[in-house]
Design goal:
The complex is a heterooctamer, with 2 copies of chain A (354 residues), 2 copies of chain B (68 residues), 2 copies of chain C (180 residues) and 2 copies of chain D (247 residues). Chain A is an alpha/beta fold and 354 residues long. In chain A, 40% of the residues lie in helices and 19% in strands. Chain A contains 13 helices and 15 strands. Chain A has a 7-stranded mixed beta sheet with strand order 3-2-4-5-7-6-13, with helices on both faces. In chain A, strands 10-12-11-14-15 form a 5-stranded mixed beta sheet, sandwiched between helices. In chain A, strands 1-8 form a two-stranded antiparallel ribbon. In chain A, helix 7 (143-160) links the parallel strand 6 (136-138) and strand 7 (163-169). Chain B has 68 residues and is an alpha+beta fold. In chain B, 15% of the residues lie in helices and 21% in strands. Chain B has helices spanning 16-20, 54-58; strands at 3-6, 26-28, 41-43, 64-67. The longest helix of chain B has 5 residues, at 16-20. Chain B starts with a strand and ends with a strand. Helix content of chain C is 37%, strand content 25%. Chain C has helices at residues 16-29, 77-83, 116-122, 129-141, 146-156, 165-179, and strands at residues 3-11, 33-38, 48-56, 69-74, 87-96, 110-114. In chain D, strands 3-2-4-5-7-6-8 form a 7-stranded mixed beta sheet, with helices on both faces. Chain D has helices spanning 24-37, 56-59, 72-82, 94-100, 102-111, 151-154, 160-164, 181-199, 214-217, 221-235; strands at 3-5, 44-48, 63-66, 87-93, 116-121, 170-177, 204-210, 239-242. Classes of the chains: A alpha/beta (354), B alpha+beta (68), C alpha/beta (180), D alpha/beta (247). Chains in contact: A-C, A-D, A-E, A-F, B-D, D-E, D-F, E-F, E-H, F-G. Chains A and E meet through helix 4, helix 5, helix 9 and helix 12 of A and helix 4, helix 5, helix 9 and helix 12 of E. Bound molecules: thiamine diphosphate (2 copies), iron/sulfur cluster (SF4) (6 copies) and magnesium ion (2 copies). One thiamine diphosphate sits between chains F (50-53, 69, 93-96, 120, 122, 124-128, 133, 213) and A (27-29, 56, 80-81, 84).
C-alpha cells in the first residue's frame, strides 16, 4: 500500500479499523479528540458503531460489555480520563477480556495541562486499579510504529484475552508522518466461541463474563492462572530497539517521543566522537529487562530520560539490579527535553565517570 | 381437584406462601427440619386446594409445583 | 544531506498549518523523511498557530525543532518576535512584509521580506499569501521540487476544491519569483 | 392433572443465596418466565449488578455479564450495540442504579438504548449490610442513619421512575410490587411489556419493582410484605409512567 | 487513658474523631462498612458531619471540597472503590490538600473477593491517577498502631498539605484488640489561613484550590515544587520496624498483618535455632530503603512475603539494588499465608544458600 | 450624570479567555452582579468546572475551587457541609453537568444540598472542540456527529431542568436565556432568586442558562444569538419549573 | 442625556452590543484596530443614546460603562 | 507461658462471636495480650460464624489460628466437622452435645461433651448456652480468672441489659461445674 500522511490520532483510528475494530466507546479529552472524532465518522462506514459515552467510566464499561460479546473494541482517553477508567480496567483484566485502550498522555497531576508528558508510566504498568493484574503496554515512537502496534494490539489482546494499552503523548497524537498500513504478522488466534456472550441459542450452557470469586481459594486459583499468563507474556512479548550500543560508554533508556530526542542527542555526540547507546522499550509491560541485563561491557552507567519526574527509571534499575549506576533526566508538565540538555547531562556523567 | 408439591429440601421456611393461599391450607411442618435447617412449608388438607398457584407465585425459591 | 527544519507561524486564519502540511506532503511524494508537528491547545486561542516541519534524507529523530530551524516562515509580528531566536546560525527567516513592518534583529541569519498579502491580492485571492511564502521558501531552499508541491496540491485540493489549485500554483510561482 | 405452575427453564437449577423470604427470588423468576414465554432465552444477554443479586449470573439460564457497581447500563450498552439482535437486560438494586449508577441509567434512557432494566427497589443496601439508599424512606433506620433517615440531612427519597419518565428515550417506565399474588401478576405483565418494547425497538424500558429486605429491615419475611405495602407504596406509587403508545 | 477493646474499623473512626476529624464522606463497601457506620453515628455527636456520598467518585470529590476549606476530613473504601477514586486523589495531591484516605484492601482484580489482601500496594504507592504525585502511605500491623497512625495521619496531612493513605485489610478492619488512645507527638502545623477557602470576608484576595496549569513551564515548576516536598517526606517520614535482625541469615520483608504471621514463623524458627530477621515497613511510601541498605553482613538473602502476587518486592529489590538475592512468597485472593508455609519457604532458601 | 452600568466588583480585572461573543462572559457577569447585590462576595465560595469556564476561578472575585470534570456538585457538597454559613455555587457546562456529572447533579438535588448551580447549556462541548453534548439538538452538527445528531443513534436531547424538577430537594429550578437584553434581565432575576433560595436554606437551586458557542457552532456571534432563539428555545422552553413556594 | 464609554482595548469585536441597542447607534470602528487585533465597538451619535444599558448588559466582556 | 488460641464456632444466632469477645475482654482486664478475629462476609450467610481468640502473656503475632488452636469450642455439627482438624495435638475440643451427636474423631486431643443448650434451658434462658461453654472452657484452661469474666460481663451488659448479667454468670458457673 502507498504511504499516506495522517495525523497521529486519526492514524490510530484508521489502524484500528484496518485491524477489524468495529466498536469504539469514548469520551472527549484533549489531546486525543481527533481519534473519537475520526471513529465517529469512519466506523459507521465500516459496519461499526461509535458511541460517545456519558463519561470515561461509562466508556470503559461499554468496552467491557462489547468485549464480552467477542467483538473487537477500543477506547481512548488521556491521563485523568484513564484515571477514571481504572476500576473498569481491572474488571476487564480480571474477566480476561480482549480490548485496546489508548492513552494520549498529558501533564499531571490532577487536571494538569494538555501538553505531551510521560507521567502515566506507573498508571499504565503498575495499574491504578486494584489487584494483581497486568496490561500489555505498547509505546510507539513514531506514527508508522504506532499504526503497526495498534493493529497488532488487537491480535495480542485476542491472543491473550487481555487488555492492551497503547501509550502515546500529544506529540504522537497531533503530529503527521507518512505511514503505510501493513498487515501484522498473523498469530493463531484462539476462538472466542467458548466464552463470548452471544446468546446460548438454546444449545450450550450460558457463558458468564465475571471477575467475582467469593471463595478465596477460587480467587487465588484465578490469580495464579493470570500470573501464568502474564509470565508467558513476559517471555514472549517484551520488545525494544537498541540504538548505537556498540562501544557505548553510557546507555540511555527512553521510550516514545522522548527516545527520538535522545537519538538526536546521540547523533550529535557521535559527531564529537562520543559513543552513547539507547535502549528504547517498545513494550513498557512486559519491560524488556533482558536488553539491560545484556548491555555490553563498555557501558559504565545508564541514564533514563523521561517526560516525567522519574517513573520508568524504577524498571531500568530493577532490570540492571545494581550492575551499573543509573541516573535520571526528565522534564515534566508538558515541557519537552531538548537534545542539548540531554547532551549536557551526559557530559556531566562522563565527567564523573572519568 | 388440584395438587401442590413442595421440594421440601430447598424451602427456606420464609412463610410467604402461607400468606398467599386463599384457602389458608399451607402451614410450616414444625415436625421436621430440612437439610437447610428450616421447617419446610407443606399443605395439610390438599383436597381444599383450588390450584390457584398463588403459593407458587409468591415463593421466592421455586419450591412449589402446582397441578390441576 | 538534506535536513530542512522549518517553522511556519502566523495568525489562526493565515493557513500556516496547511502551508506546513503541503511542504510535508511534497517531501513524502519525493520519498524523503518528513514530519509535521503542530502546536495545539489553548495557545491557539490566543490567535497564533505554528507548526514544525522537517524534510530530510535520513531518519528524523524528534519532530520538534528547538533552536535549530533552518528556516522560519513568519506571517505576523508575534511570530517574528517568538521564532527569530529559534533559527540556527546561517539559517533563513522569511518575513511577511505585508503585515510585519519590523526587521529581523539577528545578523547571523538571512532575512527575506516578502509582501505576501499584496502578491496574493494581486492574484485575486487574499488566502494564498501562505503559498507565496512557501513558494519563496522552496526557491531558496530547494527542499523539494516544485512539481512535488503541485502533486501535493492535487492531493489536498481534491474534489470540490479543485478549482483552487491553479491560483495556489500561481502563488507558489510568484513567491519563488520574488526571491529569485 | 396438568401442571399449572412449575419452575421456569429461564432459571438454572442452582439454589439462590438469598435470605429466606427475600423477594429478589420472586423477581428473578418473573424475569426468567417472561424470557421463556417470549422465547428469547437463547437470545438473551443479561447483566448482573453489584448488590445482593451479584450472583444473578448463576441463576438466569442465559448468557450473563457481571458488571461493576452501578455500571450495568453501560455494560448493556456495549453489549447491545455489539449485538443489536440480542435481547439485553440489566438487573439492578437501588444502591446500584439510583446511587452510584445514576449517570449510567439516565444516559441509557437519554440515548434510548434498546435494553430493559429490572430495578429492584428495596429501600436499602442489602449486600453490604443495610446502609441507607437514596430510596430509603424518611424515618427508616439503616446502618448509616441509625436514628432513621432525616429529610434535613439527606433529602427526600429519590423517585427514580418519575425522574426517568421525563426522558424521551425511556419508552416504557412502570413501577410494580411483588408483595402479594395480585401485584406479582401485574409485575410480570409489566416486565413482559418492557421486554416487548425492547424487541420492537421502541427504546429503553425499565420496570421498578418494590422489593423486601427482611434481613436488613430487621422484619420477618411475611411482615416485610406488609411493611412494603404500608410504607413504600404510599411514597412510591405503583403504575405506569410511560408506554410507547404515549410517546 | 484506659485500654478499650474495639473492632478495627470502628477504632479507625474513633481515632479520626480524636484527631479532630469532623467530616467524613464515604460509600459502603465490604470489608470497611463499620467505619462509615461508626462515623454516621459518632460524628454528629462531635459537632461533625457524615455524608454518604452517591459513589466513591463523589465521596473523594466531597473530600476535595471540604479539604480545600481547611477542615479535617476523611474517606475510606476498599480496593475497587479506591480504584474509582484515583482521579480525585490525583486532583487532591495536585492541589496539595490535606486529607486522610483509608483503604481496607480486599482481593482483586476486578470485583474479586472480600477477604484480606495486600494487592493494592502498587495502587497506593505508585498511584493509579495520572501524573507524578505521591501519597504518604501508612501500613499498621495492629490496632494500636493503627489508631496511633490514623491520628498522626491528620497531622502529617496538614504538615505536608498532602493526602495520607492508611492501608489495612479485612483482618485489620474486622479484628478486635485492646487499644489506648494517646496523643500523637505534636508537629508544628502550618496555618491554613493562607490558602483555605473560607470566603474572602472582603479583606483578602480570593483563594483558589486548583490543579490546572495550562502553561507547561508553570506545571513543571509546580511538579518540581511537589518533588521537593516529596523529597522532604522521603527524608523524614520513612519508618519501619526491625525484628530479630541480629545474626539473621535471611531477612523477611512484610508489612501489615502479613508481618505478624512472619513473626510467628520467625519465633518458631528461633526455637529451632534458626535466625531469621524481619523488616516491616510501616510506611509504604516513603519506602524505608535505608533499612534494607543497612542490613547486617550475616544476611544472605531476602524474602518478601505479601498477600499478593508480588508487589512490594519491587521496592525491596530497588532498595537492595542487587546486594543480595530476593525471593518472594505470597498468597492472594483472600488466602492468608501460614507460618508453616513461610517456614518451608525459608528452609528451602536456606538449603539453597548452603 | 450617574453611572447606570459599570463592571461589577464580583469580577476580577482579568480579561477572559472566552472567544468573541461567547455568552459565558454575560453569565459570569450576572452571577457576579447577583453576589455583589446580595452582599455575599466576601462569603461566597464558587466551584469552577472543567469546560471552557475552567478558568472561572480567575474571573470571579471570590474564593474558588477548580473541580474535576462533572464533580463540581460533589465538591460543593464538601464545601457546604464544612462551611454551612457560606454561599456556595457551582458553574458548569452541559458536558460537565449533563453528561459526566449526571450522578452528582442529581444527588445534590436529591439531598437538597443548599448550594446553587449555574448550568450553562450551549448544546456542545466548547472546550474540547465541539463534540456532541447530551443537549446537542437533533440535526445539529458536532465533531462526533458530523452529519448532525440523530435520534436513532443518540436519542433526543436531554432536558435537565425538567428532569431535576421531579426531585423534591430541588427547591428552585428555572431555565433562562441570554440572547437579548430582555432575557438577560430575566436571567439575572432567576439567578438572584436561586441564591436567595440557598441563603434561606430552602434546598438546592439551579438556573439553566441557554448560551452560545459561536466558535464550535461555526456561526458568527450575533447570528449565534438568533440561532439560539430559533433552535434551542423551542426544545428547551424557558420558564420556572420549581420555586420554594410551590414545594 | 446619557453617555456610554467603551474600554476599547478589551473589546473583542463580537458585535453583540450592536444588536442590543434600541437606537442602533453602536457600530464597529472599522478605522482602527485595538491591541487584541479587533475593530472595537463605538457609538457615533452619542446624543441619541437613552442610557438604557442594553449594550452593557449584553457585552460579554464588560467593555461598556453607561451613565445617565 | 499462657498462649491460648481458641476457635469459637457455631450457627449465626448462638452467640459465638460474643463468647469470643467476652473471653478477649476478660484477658484484657487482666492486662494480657489479646486478639479477636471474626470470620466475615458471605460465608456468614451460610449460617455459620466463627471467631479466633488469642489470650497470651507475650506479644501476639498473627491473630489467625491456623492448625494450632489450643481449644475449639464448637456449638453445632458443621463447626465440629470444620474445626476439629485445627486443634493442635494435645489440645481440647469442647462440643455442644445438646446439638451434636457425633463424637470427635481424633484421639490426640481431649474432647469434652457439654449439653450446653439443656443446661441453659434449665437456667431458663436458651441464649446462654454459649456462656455454659465458655465457663467450661475457662475451668479447663484457666486462661483467665472467672472474676475477669464477670468484669467483662459488666462492661458488655451495661445499661438496659444489666438484668442479664446474673443469668450469664450462672451459666458460666454451671459450665465450669460440668467439667470440673
Ligand atoms: C465500586 C464499588 N463500590 C461499592 C461496592 C460495595 N457494594 C456492594 S453491593 C452494594 C450496594 C448494594 O445495594 P443495592 O444495589 O440496593 O442492592 P441490594 O443488595 O439491596 O439488592 C455496595 C455499595 C462495590 N462492590 N463496588
Ligand atoms: C475526566 C475528564 N474527562 C474529559 C475531560 C475533557 N474535557 C474538558 S472540557 C470538556 C467538556 C466541556 O464541555 P461543557 O461542559 O459543555 O463546557 P463548555 O466548554 O461547552 O462550556 C471535556 C470533555 C477532562 N478534562 N476530564
Ligand atoms: S395452589 Fe392456591 S389453594 Fe392451593 S395451596 Fe397454593 S395457594 Fe393454596
Ligand atoms: S414461600 Fe417457598 S421458601 Fe418460603 S416457606 Fe413457602 S415454600 Fe418455603
Ligand atoms: S440481605 Fe436483603 S436483599 Fe439481600 S438477600 Fe438478604 S433479604 Fe434479600
Ligand atoms: S469555544 Fe465556545 S463556549 Fe468556549 S469560549 Fe469559545 S465560544 Fe465560548
Ligand atoms: S445605552 Fe442603550 S441607547 Fe445607549 S448605546 Fe447602549 S444600548 Fe444604545
Ligand atoms: S459586545 Fe462588547 S466585546 Fe462585543 S463588540 Fe460590543 S463592546 Fe465589543
Ligand atoms: Mg437495595
Ligand atoms: Mg457546553
Amino acid at each position: 500500500m502507498a504511504k499516506v500522511l495522517m495525523k497521529g490520532n486519526e492514524a490510530i483510528g484508521a489502524a484500528a479499523i484496518q485491524a477489524g475494530c468495529k466498536y469504539f466507546f469514548g469520551y472527549p479529552i484533549t489531546p486525543q479528540n481527533e481519534l473519537p472524532e475520526y471513529m465517529s465518522k469512519e466506523l459507521p462506514k465500516n459496519d461499526g458503531v461509535f458511541v460517545q459515552a456519558e463519561s470515561e467510566v461509562a466508556a470503559i464499561n461499554m468496552v467491557y460489555g462489547a468485549a464480552g460479546c467477542g467483538v473487537r473494541v477500543m477506547t481512548s482517553s488521556s491521563s485523568p480520563g484513564i484515571a477514571l477508567k481504572q476500576e473498569g480496567i481491572t474488571y476487564i483484566a480480571g474477566a480476561e477480556l480482549p480490548c485496546v485502550i489508548v492513552n494520549i498522555v498529558r501533564g499531571g497531576p490532577g487536571l494538569g495541562g494538555i501538553q505531551p508528558a510521560q507521567s502515566d508510566y506507573f498508571q499504565s504498568t503498575r495499574g491504578g486499579g486494584n489487584g494483581d493484574y497486568k496490561l500489555l503496554v505498547l509505546a510507539p515512537a513514531n506514527l508508522q510504529e504506532m499504526v503497526d502496534m495498534v493493529q497488532e494490539a488487537f491480535d495480542m489482546a485476542d491472543y491473550y484475552r487481555n487488555p492492551v494499552m497503547v501509550v502515546g503523548d500529544g506529540m504522537i497524537g497531533q503530529m503527521m508522518e507518512p505511514i503505510e498500513f501493513r498487515t501484522p504478522v498473523k498469530r493463531e488466534l484462539p476462538s472466542k466461541e467458548g466464552w463470548a456472550t452471544t446468546g446460548t441459542k438454546g444449545n450450550r450452557k450460558p457463558h458468564i463474563i465475571n471477575s467475582l470469586f467469593l471463595d478465596p481459594q477460587g480467587l487465588e486459583d484465578h490469580n495464579i492462572r493470570l500470573q501464568k499468563k502474564y509470565k508467558t507474556m513476559k517471555e514472549n512479548e517484551a520488545r525494544y530497539e537498541a540504538y548505537n550500543m556498540e562501544n557505548a560508554e553510557i546507555v540511555l533508556a527512553a521510550y516514545g517521543t522522548t527516545s527520538r530526542i535522545c537519538k538526536n542527542a546521540i547523533d550529535k555526540l557521535k559527531e564529537e566522537g562520543i559513543n552513547i547507546g539507547l535502549i528504547r522499550p517498545q513494550t513498557l509491560w512486559p519491560f524488556p529487562e533482558k536488553a539491560f541485563q545484556e548491555i555490553p561491557e563498555t557501558v559504565k552507567a545508564a541514564l533514563t530520560v523521561e517526560m516525567s519526574e522519574g517513573q520508568m527509571i524504577d524498571d531500568v534499575r530493577l532490570a540492571l539490579n545494581g550492575k551499573i549506576p543509573t541516573e535520571f533526566y526528565g522534564r515534566s508538565g508538558g515541557m519537552i527535553p531538548t537534545p542539548d540538555a540531554i547532551i549536557d547531562k551526559i557530559k556531566e556523567m562522563l565527567g564523573g565517570l572519568k | 381437584m388440584a395438587k401442590v408439591t413442595f421440594k421440601e429440601d430447598i424451602c427456606k421456611g420464609c412463610q410467604l406462601c402461607t400468606t398467599a393461599c386463599p384457602k389458608n391450607i399451607i402451614v410450616m411442618a414444625t415436625d421436621r427440619i430440612n437439610v437447610k435447617g428450616y421447617h419446610p412449608a407443606t399443605v395439610l388438607e390438599m383436597e381444599k386446594c383450588i390450584g390457584c398457584a398463588n403459593c407458587a407465585l409468591i415463593c421466592p425459591d421455586c419450591v412449589i409445583t402446582v397441578e390441576r | 544531506m538534506l535536513n530542512e527544519k522549518v517553522i511556519c507561524a502566523g495568525f489562526g486564519g493565515q493557513g500556516v498549518m496547511s502551508m506546513g502540511q503541503l511542504l510535508t506532503y511534497a517531501g513524502m511524494v519525493e520519498d524523503k523523511q518528513v514530519s509535521w508537528l503542530p502546536s495545539y491547545g489553548p495557545e491557539m486561542r490566543g490567535g497564533t498557530a505554528n507548526c514544525n516541519v522537517i524534510v530530510a534524507d535520513s531518519l528524523i529523530g524528534s519532530p520538534i525543532i528547538n533552536d535549530d530551524a533552518t528556516c522560519a516562515i513568519v506571517m505576523n509580528l508575534p511570530s517574528l518576535d517568538k521564532f527569530e531566536v529559534d533559527v540556527a546560525p546561517k539559517g533563513k527567516i522569511l518575513i511577511n512584509s505585508s503585515l510585519i513592518e519590523k526587521k529581523a534583529k539577528r545578523d547571523d541569519i538571512t532575512a527575506y521580506y516578502i509582501p505576501a498579502n499584496e502578491i496574493a491580492l494581486e492574484l485575486g485571492n487574499a488566502r494564498v499569501a501562505n503559498m507565496v511564502m512557501l513558494g519563496a521558501y522552496i526557491e531558496l531552499s530547494k527542499a523539494v521540487k516544485i512539481e512535488s508541491l503541485h502533486k501535493a496540491l492535487q492531493k489536498v485540493f481534491g474534489g470540490s476544491k479543485a478549482h483552487l489549485i491553479a491560483v495556489n500554483e500561481e502563488a507558489l510561482a510568484r513567491g519563488a519569483e520574488f526571491v529569485r | 392433572m396438568a401442571i399449572v405452575f412449575e419452575k421456569t427453564k429461564g432459571l438454572t437449577d442452582k439454589e439462590t443465596h438469598y435470605c429466606p423470604g427475600c423477594t429478589h427470588g420472586i423477581i428473578h423468576r418473573l424475569v426468567a418466565e417472561v424470557l421463556e414465554e417470549l422465547d428469547v432465552l437463547g437470545n438473551a444477554i443479561g447483566v448482573a449488578p453489584v448488590g445482593c443479586s451479584v450472583l444473578a449470573y448463576d441463576y438466569f439460564n442465559v448468557d450473563m455479564h457481571e458488571a461493576s457497581h452501578g455500571r450495568a447500563p453501560a455494560v448493556a450498552t456495549g453489549i447491545k450495540r455489539a449485538m443489536p439482535n440480542n435481547v439485553v437486560f440489566t438487573y439492578q438494586g437501588d444502591g446500584d442504579l439510583a446511587s452510584i449508577g445514576t449517570a449510567e441509567i439516565v444516559h441509557v434512557a437519554h440515548r434510548g438504548e434498546k435494553i430493559t432494566t429490572i430495578f429492584v427497589n428495596n429501600a436499602i443496601y442489602g449486600m453490604t449490610g443495610g446502609q441507607m439508599a437514596p430510596t430509603t424512606l424518611i424515618g427508616q433506620k439503616a446502618t448509616t442513619c441509625q436514628d432513621g433517615r432525616s429529610k434535613a440531612h439527606s433529602g427526600m427519597p429519590l423517585r427514580v421512575s418519575e425522574m426517568l419518565a421525563t426522558i424521551d428515550g425511556a419508552a416504557f417506565v412502570e413501577r410494580v410490587s411483588v408483595h402479594n399474588p395480585v401485584e406479582i401478576r401485574k409485575a410480570k405483565k409489566a416486565i413482559k411489556k418492557a421486554f416487548e418494547c425492547q424487541i420492537k425497538g421502541e427504546g429503553f424500558s425499565i420496570v421498578e419493582v418494590l422489593s423486601t429486605c427482611p434481613t436488613n429491615w430487621g422484619i420477618a419475611p411475611t411482615e416485610s410484605l406488609k411493611w412494603l405495602e404500608a410504607n413504600m407504596i404510599p411514597y412510591y406509587p405503583l403504575g405506569n409512567f410511560r408506554t410507547p403508545e404515549e410517546a
